[in-house]
Amino acid sequence: MEPLTAIELRVLGCLLEKAVTTPDQYPLTLNALIGACNQKSSREPVMNLDPGVVERTLRTLEDRLLVSEDPNRGGRAVKYTQRFCNTAFAALQLEADEYALLTVLMLRGAQTPGELRTRCDRLHRFADNDAVVASLERLALREGDPLVRELPRRAGRRDAEWQHLLGEAVEEERAEAPVPAPSAGDASTRPRAEPPPEVTLAERVALLEARIDALEQRLDGDA
């Protein structure tokens, strides 16, 4: 598949997400899709896309047969649905766990298994980080079309991050930063207690973000 731009990834990722998390409001109107693209939670980076940009992106995705207008809308406002995967028109068919991981990677960029486990909770509940890794490995080992890859572990991180391979959001491989050698008598050479794993803090932050996102969804539904 031709690589997707960052904005195409955001639009398509939002349609994939909302199809599962708010099925009663899916397919999405243009206004609902713009709001989803510009959410301040569960999105990295946060974007501020204007209607014209989103409309042009939808036209491009329609031309690529990745998005279509809802044929069942009748006389109501135009609504949009994804044709990227798990539809009758899509060549790509994913299991629920794979769908969840790819969606969150499209919306938030590279993440560790611990971050993904927490942030995927509304799309699919993983038993533990090992279950996340097993699903990621299936996506990475797809014959002919791997969808994700594992990045080199960064200095200070207990776990390596994973990223999607769908387009612009793919980052350059990041080598670990060199650690300067301590000088003689440097306090850093003294034994110290092992710090708590960073992933624990990341998971807590991700859980809070997920709760904020759920609250925003509820408020939007009541509006």
Architecture overview:
By secondary structure, the protein is mainly alpha-helical. The protein is 42% helix and 7% strand. It contains 7 helices and 5 strands, in the order αβααββαααββα. Strands 1-3-2 form a 3-stranded antiparallel beta sheet. The protein has a two-stranded antiparallel ribbon with strand order 4-5. α5 runs parallel beside α7. It is globular and about 55 Å long.
Concise summary:
The chain has helices spanning 6-21, 30-37, 51-63, 96-108, 113-119, 129-140, 198-222; strands at 28-29, 67-69, 79-82, 148-150, 162-164.
Q: What percentage of the residues does DSSP assign to strands (E)?
A: 5-15%
What do the pLDDT scores average to?
85
Name the structural class: mainly alpha
Biggest sheet strand line-up: 1-3-2
Which sheet architecture does the biggest sheet show? 3 strands, antiparallel
Query: How many beta-strand segments?
Result: 5
Specify Rg, calculated over alpha carbons.
20 Å
What does the secondary structure layout of this molecule look like, with pairings?
Elements: H1 6-21, E1 28-29, H2 30-37, H3 51-63, E2 67-69, E3 79-82, H4 96-108, H5 113-119, H6 129-140, E4 148-150, E5 162-164, H7 198-222
Helix pairs in contact: 1-2, 1-3, 1-4, 5-6, 5-7
What are the salient characteristics of this protein?
single chain; 223 residues; mainly alpha; three-stranded antiparallel β-sheet; 7 helices
